[in-house]
Every structure is written in C-alpha cells, then in structure tokens.
Design a protein that fits this description.
CATH architecture of the largest domain: Alpha-Beta Barrel
Order of helices and strands: EEEEEEEEHEEHEHHHEHEHEHEHHHEEE
CATH superfamily of the largest domain: Metal-dependent hydrolases
Helix content: 25-40%
Shape: globular
Largest sheet: 8 strands, mixed
Structural class: alpha/beta
Strand content: 25-35%
CATH topology of the largest domain: TIM Barrel
Number of strands: 18
Number of helices: 11
Number of domains: 2
Length: 384
C-alpha cells in the first residue's frame, strides 16, 4: 500500500482538497480525504505539492514513429493501399522507445496510440499505460477507435503515385464505399445466421469497421479547417460517434461542431504556422470550445512534437484565456472520456487506478512547475 499525505489534491471531479491524503492499495485508489491512517504502508509526505491524476495524452504515435535516431522508423503508417482498417497500432509499437520513459517522467501515465495518417483509413487505435515492460500488459483498451484521415496526408501519399486519392474530393468517396460495403457485409452475416446458411467469406477489412458501424467505438478523424465540415457530414450520414483530431481552424465551425456532439482532440498547440493544413493554428479555439461545453482535450501528436510537452501545450491554452482547472481537465478526465477509459483513469476517485502525479508548483500556470513523483498503479516509477 502507498499513502500520499498532505497534498493539495485536484481530483478533476471539481473537488479540491487542501492537505489531503490518497491511499492506494493493490494498484487502486482505496480512499481519498483528510487524516487517513493506515498500517504497514509506504508514505510520501507531499506537503507543499500538488496532486493530479496521471496525465492523459489522447493522440500520440510514440513507439511506432521514432524520429530521434539516425535511422528513423515508421511502423504506424501502412502506406501500401489507401484503406487499411484491419491493421492495429498495437502490433507496430516498440516498447523500448525512450519516449515512454520521457512520458511518465513528465507526468503522462496514459497514452492513446494511433496509426499515422498516410492512408485514408489507417487502422485501430488503442490506449495504454506509459510504464511497463510488456506492451500487452500495459494496454487499457484495444481498440479505442478507428483512425481515418482527410486532406493533405493521404492525398500527398497517393497523389505522388498517380493513385486515388490524389485530391480531397476522392477521400469521402473511398470512405463511403467501404462503409457501404461493411453495412452490406453485416446484413449478409445477419441473414446467414437467421437462416442457418453459410456465412459470407471472412473479410478482415470489413470486420475491422463493424465496431464503428455498430457505434461500439468512435471514428478518430484527422482533419483541419479544410476538411472539418466534410468529416462531420460523413459521421452524421452514418450516425457514428467521432472525434475531430488536430482540428486547427475549429473557430470557423464552432456552431457545426457543437451541433454534431463530437469530441475534439486539439493540437498540438505548439505547431509552427505554415502552408496548407498548418495555415491556421488557432490556440484560442480551445477556450471557445470549452465554453460551449464541447468535450475537448489537448494533445502532443508526439513524436511530431515532444511527448514530454503536454503540460506546456496546456499552458499555452491558459495563456490564451483558458482557466487553469479547465486546462488540467483537457489533459486528464476530458482526454480519458474521449478514448473511453474514464472508468480507470483521468480523475482521482475511489476505485480508479492509482495513477498520481505530484508537482512542485502549479502546472499550466507556473512555468517552473516540476514533476516530483510519478506513481502508476500505486508504484513510484519516477522520483525527481
């Protein structure tokens, strides 16, 4: 057992406990409150420290993309055909990547790992802890979503090969075609089961899309200002749950986003403004999205930007007018809800995983705020 004493606890349930304690037993939070007593426990005196739930990054590619070595790898982009729903990011993850250590040392204990956006349909997304030595043991949920991509990335991949999609207008037709084929495939399976006749030939591509059609998992839709309305319309047409990923230019479509009921994984906020998709990096949009009650998270897109920079991105949102506690929610409970793991992580509540980060200084507000301890399932995995 582990007992954290005397911390200022931000539970992310709108409760702040001054000089509070957290008791963790068998990897789960057993009790939160004041003056908790327990025998035979390891004690951390957190006097003067701030306790947060382990941070959650809802969009990352670490372990599958490694740009820090001389020979970079990209095992998250299966760019051999534009539609690859059957592949899974889980099987492209290199657990030896130093990015996992960078993540938990900076307070990120849960990460959503997604295939890249070189294809139109990219594959299954999953959520995992950042600490461990076996990725299959670290998995929290697989799949959490099906990743699809609009815009410059897929058309840039296949346009160079004189293949479809070479334009933005061809991407929706590819998506609609495979969705329609999946609906027909589901119908054929149901009729075969009902009539006790042979099942249709197994199709791994369509099988991977069935959970989306049945609304068991959402679409994770890579798009920016050029394709946001297209993404929303396709999701509405098929009555699918979805999140908009990156979402630069969201300020142009606030009404449409709110009406759609989608989630937003915004960022990275520190991206350099440039041509094309990066021509609008509207950090202030997260303030407007939050005011409208749209569940929004802030992401690093690591290793596109560093995995250990999540707090800095949230700090940029605070500098743009977002209240500190709202920014903290965007990298804890909001993100956990988007990737469907809020039953285990994202807030400090009895019964949830004992993932706690202790900071010296107020993260997102004080630029010198520092992680002093990272605790994953009751185990101290980092101490400054």
């Amino acid at each position: 057992m582990l007992l954290i004493k005397n911390a200022k606890i931000y539970t992310m349930t709108d409760e702040v406990i001054d000089n509070g304690d957290i008791l963790i037993e068998n990897g789960k939070i057993k009790e939160i409150g004041k003056n908790i007593d327990a025998e035979n426990v390891e004690i951390i005196d957190a006097n003067g420290l701030i306790a947060l739930p382990g941070l959650v990054d809802a969009h990352s590619h670490i372990g599958g993309m490694n740009f820090s070595q001389v020979e970079s790898i990209d095992d998250f982009n299966e760019m051999t055909k534009p539609l690859t729903p059957e592949v899974q990011a889980l099987y492209g993850t290199d657990i030896t990547s130093p990015d996992f250590e960078y993540a938990y040392k900076s307070g990120t204990t849960t990460i959503c790992l997604t295939p890249g956006s070189g294809n139109v349909i990219n594959g299954w997304v999953y959520a995992a802890k950042t600490y461990g030595d076996n990725i299959f043991d670290m998995v929290i949920k697989n799949p959490t979503a099906l990743k699809i991509a609009f815009g410059g990335n897929p058309k840039g991949t296949y346009g160079k090969r004189d293949q479809m999609p070479s334009t933005r207008m061809s991407i929706p037709s590819l998506i609609r075609d495979i969705f329609e084929r999946t609906k027909e495939y589901i119908k054929e399976k149901e009729e075969a089961e009902k009539n006790n006749t042979p099942m249709p030939k197994y199709n791994s591509e369509l099988e991977a899309i069935i959970p989306v059609i049945k609304k068991e998992i959402p679409l994770k839709m890579h798009c920016t200002q050029f394709d946001m309305i297209t993404a929303i319309e396709i999701a509405k047409e098929y009555d699918m749950k979805f999140s908009l990923e990156h979402a630069w230019g969201a300020k142009l479509y606030l009404d449409e986003i709110e009406e759609s009921g989608c989630d937003i994984c915004f960022g990275p906020l520190g991206s350099m403004i440039g041509p094309g998709e990066c021509s609008v990096i509207d950090i202030e949009s997260v303030v407007d999205l939050d005011k409208r009650g749209i569940n929004t998270s802030i992401i690093t897109d690591s290793p596109i930007l560093s995995v250990d920079s999540l707090i800095q991105h949230a700090g940029e949102a605070v500098r743009s007018g977002l209240p500190v506690e709202r920014a903290l929610k965007m990298i804890t409970i909001n993100a956990a809800k988007i990737i469907g793991v809020e039953d285990r992580v994202g807030s400090l509540e009895v019964g949830k995983d004992g993932d706690v980060v202790l900071f010296k200084g107020m993260p997102t507000y004080e630029t010198n705020a520092k992680v002093m301890y990272t605790i994953v399932e009751g185990k101290v995995v980092y101490k400054a």
